[in-house]
Amino acid sequence: MHLRPLALPARTLLFSALLLFFPAAAPAAAPVPAPVSAAPAEATLSGELTLGVMVIESANNLNPKGSSATLDSLDEAAGTESSVLPMVLPEVAYSTGGSEPIRWYLNSRPPIEEAGRYALVSGVVLPRPGLATVDLALFAVPFAEVWENPYLLGAPRRETDRWLWGGAVALKELFDSPFSLTLAWAADEVDRDGIGRLYPELDRQGKVYSLSLGYRIASGPRLAITPRLHVSRGDYQGEANSSWRVRGELTGRYLLSAAVLLPTLSYSYSRYDGDHPLFADERREHGYGANLVVSYPRLCAVDQLALRAIVGYRLGVGNIDFFETESLLAGVGLAWSF
Q1: Given 3-state DSSP classes, what are the helix, strand and coil percentages for the chain, each rounded to the nearest 5?
Q2: pTM score above 0.90
Q3: What's the CATH number where 312 sits?
Q4: How many folded domains does the chain comprise?
Q5: For 139-166, what is each residue's pLDDT tens digit?
């Protein structure tokens, strides 16, 4: 979609992988006998809408959708909460055509790992032959909520809005190589930060900076494998909430005769700057994740219709039990493309 708890709502978990890339338009050859350049591609508008349902089992003391409103103790991880949610994933792209077409897009794949697995993303892709394909994007995470005071005992905790938004610059196929680089920035704000007012070390207002490197080590009509390394800095006003995180990820794509498999494996390590005032210790956390998306194109022999299914698991463990997390989800949906 982690495993430093980000306190995003459960409906944002893991479903960005369900959206497939749009095929590029092929330029037509010029109808003259002498060798000439291919004719410029025409402007195109394409899109896809995925509708379905997902079932989520989540345990996360910082997430209102992953924990009970009432806490009995600060010495244990959250109990599991279950939910059934609708899945609505739109995607639209417009290409200007020409010999070096510019493409505008709107989708739900956030360019920064700290934004979770779902965001509203709008960007433009600019081809720069010999240098890179440049992707400029803005994004915002909708409907995010956190606890006003996640450590409150003896009374129900209250929810409050969380605002996470930012931008990213990605350089893909850098210098005509399989290498890619992404720089991203996000502002992170909590509407009513009750715990930040009580303990300045836990203030949740701040910014996140991220650097991602990827290298495609296998690519072909049937198989693609891409390892990625993410390094991020959470720079918050509260020292105990500021951290460094390193995350490794291995993604793949394998084409079968009747389906496309999209597996992902990940591991992360997070270390926070200062001791947590309620636990008298510095947080250190390990995160493990695995998910598999299966896509069946041409469902019922209809070119525009596809069946999508996903299953995913995440586990976060650390030196403080309160922050340990776990989530399991499964979902299925129908995708219609145009």
Answers
A1: 10, 55, 35
A2: no
A3: 2.40.160
A4: 1
A5: 999 889 999 999 999 899 999 999 999 9
